[in-house]
Structures are given as structure tokens and as C-alpha cells.
Amino acid sequence: MINKTTAIHYKWGKNCDTWNLVDKENLSIKLEKMPPGTKEKLHFHKKAQQFFFILKGEAVFYIAEKQEILKEKGGILIEPGTEHFIANESEKELEFLVVSQPTTAEDRTNIDSD
User: Each residue of 2-48: pLDDT tens digit?
Assistant: First the structure.
């Protein structure tokens, strides 16, 4: 069994949280939480495809220079090699699952240095 209490946890960005629910070479599943006004850096993955599923709040995805808004219970697939980042531009906390196949460990290229 795995949950927020037993999963490996780490902080990133400006007080964002990640819990590693599954961390294998061929599959990664993370639960993530982003406070209002936070965002990830623009990046891409050479090998991994990623599926994001919004559990709580509203996410803004910037994908290949386009903007997509994703609300609760909505999902989006990001193909390998696609430049993207997620942002919480709302006033409420954002919580989501991100499923990566294979893992994104050592498969991330940052584009934005901010």
C-alpha cells in the first residue's frame, strides 16, 4: 500500500510538493500539489510520455507555444519531445497526478532558466 504518508516526498519550485507513488524505470506515478501563482520551468523529455490528471483546482498547460486550461477530472497527454510546463494561475491550490512512461529520471531538458 502507498499513500501520502508512506510515499517519498520532496519540495520543488516555490513550495510545490511531490509524492512518488510509483518509481520504476518503466513507470512513474506522482501526486503533485502546487500553491496559487506557481509554475514549472519550460522543459521537454526525450523518451517519456506524460499523462496529467487534475484532481483538484485548475491547471494551465503551456504546450508547444499553445495554452490549454484543464479543470478538475480532466486529463492531457504530453508526447515525448514536446516543450511544456504546468502553471497554477488560479487563487486555489492545484493537485494532480502525473503518470510518466518510462520514468522522467535523467530524461528532462530544461529550456527556461527562470
Answer: 999 999 999 999 999 999 999 999 999 999 999 999 999 999 999 99
Compute the distance between CA of residue 103 and CA of residue 99 in angstroms, rounded to an integer. 9
- Beta-sheet strands, E only, within the chain: 8-12, 16-24, 27-34, 38-39, 43-44, 49-56, 58-63, 66-71, 75-78, 84-88, 94-101, 109-110
Higher confidence at residue 91 or residue 112? 91
Phi-psi region of 73 (alpha: psi -120 to 50; beta: other; left: phi over 0): left
Residue 100 contacts by C-beta under 8 Å, 6 or more apart in sequence?
27, 28, 29, 30, 45, 48, 49, 50, 51
Residue 18 CB neighbour total at 10 angstroms: 18
